[in-house]
Amino acid sequence: MPTPHLHFSAFVMNTTSHILQGLWRRPDAGQTDFNSLEHWVALAKVLERGRFDFIFFADVVGLYGDYGGSYEKYVQAGLQIPSNDPSVIASAIAYNTTDLGIAITSSVIQDHPFNFARKISTLDHATNGRIAWNIVTSALENAARNFGYDGLEEHDERYRWADEYVDVTYKLWEGSWDDGALLQDRARGLHGDFAKIHKINHVGKRYRVEGPHLVAPSPQRTPILFQAGSSTAGRDFAARHAEAQFIISPGPEQARDLIEDTRRRVVATGRKRDDLKFFQGLHFVIGSTEEEARRKEIELDEAIDLDGMVAHLSGAVGVDFGGHDLDAPLGDIGNTDGTRSIVEWVQESVSRRAGAQRPGESPGRAATVRDLGLLQGRNSRVVGTPESIADQLQRWRDAGVDGINVVNATIPGSYVEFVEHVIPVLQDRGLAQREYAPGSTRAKLFGTDLINERHPAAQYRGAFS
Amino acid sequence: MPTPHLHFSAFVMNTTSHILQGLWRRPDAGQTDFNSLEHWVALAKVLERGRFDFIFFADVVGLYGDYGGSYEKYVQAGLQIPSNDPSVIASAIAYNTTDLGIAITSSVIQDHPFNFARKISTLDHATNGRIAWNIVTSALENAARNFGYDGLEEHDERYRWADEYVDVTYKLWEGSWDDGALLQDRARGLHGDFAKIHKINHVGKRYRVEGPHLVAPSPQRTPILFQAGSSTAGRDFAARHAEAQFIISPGPEQARDLIEDTRRRVVATGRKRDDLKFFQGLHFVIGSTEEEARRKEIELDEAIDLDGMVAHLSGAVGVDFGGHDLDAPLGDIGNTDGTRSIVEWVQESVSRRAGAQRPGESPGRAATVRDLGLLQGRNSRVVGTPESIADQLQRWRDAGVDGINVVNATIPGSYVEFVEHVIPVLQDRGLAQREYAPGSTRAKLFGTDLINERHPAAQYRGAFS
Q1: B145 touching A, CB under 8 A?
Q2: N or C: which end of chain A has fewer CB within 10 A?
């Protein structure tokens, strides 16, 4: 059942430069302290003060594809390298908070599902049921080569791999231990009920796992499942498995189309429309007046490392736009299948939007590398006073978006500002929660601790008895 | 260089029943709360008050071998099932302590070395250099079958596997990032120095790992390395790789022989005698008088689940002594190669020691399953007043033991008692430290943050430049 208000999540990564490249160079940017627990605990406390539902850790387990022929730019920009493990800092965050959900990205490539399921169950106990898992397949060639593969599997095969991976974890989380298996009965000297703890004997294409699961049922058993793929295979995977999908739509109308399409797929799998919630990624430029907001936006644009933005896009889509001057015309760089749609997107935007022009330039000029960087930096940006931001968020809510994954310019600054200035206005309008609902993170979002009976994980309840 | 005092470590596991089986049934036993972070943080604070060097987490990633034909006994006794992941609770412990080292057991079977190295480096940053790794190969068939193997590799092959595994991690920890690679230079906009961050391109029998390592050099780079094998292959592995070895010798003289043998192997590899420290596992029964101590020992013996002790031994050595009455003669159970040495050990002890006899029994009687359980429970036990315990620990120290891994009967009770009553006496005698040395755990134990140049990990410094 959808709540009237939006959910909020902080979109972060255990690194210096996650989405908005170059901002770490600002003197007030604390994200360079990512190695320290204090940095993350302090942020978590800010988020909990603002009644955020999640701190959401993105992750990569390898370098992005070469930019200008190497990974030099990524290193210089701190662009997701270093990339620290988010899962091992979660318990420090949990110990210092009470209600904030902690979402961890983990790829099927990096951890064996038996080990991963154990880690997640341990954390779900340790957090009293506040763990979420963002399921990813990893699209980085270097990541594959870090784990002994020659390279990436083909795209749809990666989702078949993920299908088996989650299947193993569902068996462990939902089927291996029946309710009431952990007794801890001192008087009878019975710690567990043998009849209620089962091996799973999974045999599949990639995995053979005997079991039993090594951890007793945690508050949520299966953690809240996030997913982020927007391809057809990605939408189908989300429709089958995800309870929350992370999207980055250019605007509410496009989000509405994507959400409607995915919800249809959800229903086609036998689940209900609202079994999947959608979180839109947005970053905010907040002013006490519209003028101040516009001024701060100019400052933000100037602080962004445009070359870094292009590098991130290059690495993510697997097309090397690097090694060129920022003023080089994009059309000259390449006209391959991979680049064409991107070049056309930038050229259209340059031709259409005065915002992408610089003083003295004509509307018909050729799009440059700089334009690409600017567009990337302005992607999913919301600018204004708290009141006008609330208006804009209402439009996202009306389009069917359930939550906002708040991208940062600085940590903790972006979140402090959002919590202090925007959240109170949203709360006054009923667009943000004033208090947490009780219980586990799934109870807060969906009303029950356990994943519902329409989800494929539920088929394994009692399956091994 | 050896310190005059002993080091102290708490030998625990993220489970209910670790070594002394059955004690969890006592009303004052808190170890049933292992799922909770508060339980572990509270214990860590006790240990730090007592200036312990480590909290040492043992671990298994599967069931012990069948006992009486199944894993029923293990479940009923809470005997290392559940077995929660220790690595994900470390940061909560670290955040609430300042000096305690955190040693985590992880098997080569459970985690890919690229993922593991990243996890450890992240934790070493998060703890300001307080992480140790207990390297294990896993000797449990069920663990192998949880990770897709048909069964265990042969014993010596497991150590060859471990050799390659640690080699990959050394390359990542020591060679991938040169000193000074992380700049975070805001003025120049240079986050990292590309010339100092290298791929490792490891190609071996089991692993291919491209790199670079994803985490910048942590305070210790390579964590403190623990190892526990006592076989010839195990001693040789420890001699090459370990900085601390966990041993369980029946007494100081046997410890002296083992330590001397292993130190000779250490020197043979080009390292120095004192590059490896030895931690003896012991549990303590503490009384304000000798009489009180003896009385508490009888209570302890009565609280121990003897069948559980036999089950643990059975599972660990891979011989099923289960399914028999406690009064069944051991000699009737089996006389296979696996059981013979154990049966002889118990029979000798029964014939020799009045302590293993029960009222009305003759010295020449046949040893029973009960005797085996009692002997296991009394293994490595130290009984007495704080002063006599200090005398006994002095003998262990004189035999060359560097530290004590303190086994518990109850958590936190056993450690509270030891810290309040024994540690002050040891401190007065110079046998325990009064204050922590500054810096990382390796700096506290060995005087330097980084592993020394005689260790095989050091060969990779600058190796990929």
Answers
A1: yes
A2: N
The residues, any chain, with a CB within 8 Å of residue A348's CB and separated by 6 or more, are none
The minimum CA-CA distance between A59 and chain B, rounded to whole Å, is 11
Q: Chain B contact for A32, CB < 8 A?
A: yes
Q: Are residues A313 and A418 in the same domain?
A: no
Cis bond upstream, residue A82 (ω within 30): yes
Within this chain, do residues A348 and A428 fall inside the same structural domain, yes or no?
no
- Is B1 within a domain? no
Residue B138, chain A, CB below 8 Å: the answer is no
Q: What is the CATH number of the domain that holds B144?
A: 3.20.20.30
Nearest one of A414, A415, A434 to A424, comparing CA atoms: A434
Crossing angle for the helix pair A290-303 and A369-378, to the nearest 10 degrees:
130
Residue A98 to residue A11: CA distance in whole angstroms: 19
Q: How far apart are CA A437 and CA B422, in angstroms?
A: 48
- The domain boundary residue, chosen from B354, B374, B394: B374
The range of the structural domain enclosing residue B315 comes to 295-374
Q: Write the residue in B26, B125, B146 that is nearest to A211 by C-beta.
A: B146
Q: Is A77 on the interface with B (CB under 8 A)?
A: yes
Rounded to the nearest angstrom, the minimum Cα separation between A250 and chain B is 30
Q: Look up residue A79 and give its DSSP letter.
A: B
Interface test with A, best of B35, B73, B130 (most A CBs within 10 A): B35
Provide ipTM, 2 decimals: 0.96
pTM, entire model: 0.96
Q: Is residue A177 part of a domain?
A: yes
Whether A380 is in a domain gets the answer no
Q: pLDDT digit string (tens) for B123-178?
A: 999 999 999 999 999 889 999 999 999 999 888 899 999 999 999 999 999 999 99
Residue B380, domain member (yes or no): no
Under 8 Å between Cβ of A235 and A265: yes
Nearest Cα of chain B lies from the Cα of A308 at a distance, in angstroms, of 11
In this structure, are A273 and A310 located in the same domain?
no
Number of domains observed in the structure of chain B: 2
In a shared domain, residues B198 and B321:
no
Nearest CA in chain A to B181: A75
* One domain for residues B124 and B224: yes
Q: Is B83 found in the same domain as B230?
A: yes
User: Hey, which residues 277-336 in chain B have their CB within 8 Å of chain A?
Assistant: 305
Digits of tens for pLDDT over chain B (465 positions)?
Answer: 567 899 999 999 999 999 999 999 999 999 999 999 999 999 999 999 999 999 999 999 999 999 999 999 999 999 999 999 999 999 999 999 999 999 999 999 999 999 999 999 999 999 999 999 999 998 899 999 999 999 998 888 999 999 999 999 999 999 999 999 999 999 999 999 999 999 999 999 999 999 999 999 999 999 999 999 778 888 899 999 999 999 999 999 999 999 999 999 999 999 999 999 999 999 999 999 999 999 999 999 999 999 999 999 998 888 888 988 999 998 888 667 777 888 888 888 888 765 555 666 665 788 999 999 999 999 899 999 999 999 999 999 999 999 999 999 999 999 999 999 999 999 999 999 999 999 999 999 999 999 999 999 999 999 999
Q: Are residues A275 and A332 in the same domain?
A: no
Do the beta carbons of residue B238 and residue B262 sit within 8 Å?
Answer: yes
Q: Is the peptide bond before A386 cis (omega within 30 degrees of 0)?
A: no
Residue from the list A16, A146, A190 with its beta carbon closest to the beta carbon of B191:
A16
Q: Does B457 touch chain A (CB under 8 A)?
A: no
Token output for A81: 């390298």
- Measured between CB atoms, does B212 come within 8 Å of chain A? yes
Residue A410 labelled as part of a binding site = no
| B70 is known to lie in a ligand binding site | no
Exposure of A163 by Cβ count < 10 A (0-12 exposed, 13-18 middle, 19+ buried)?
A: middle
Q: Name the domain boundary from A327, A349, A374.
A: A374
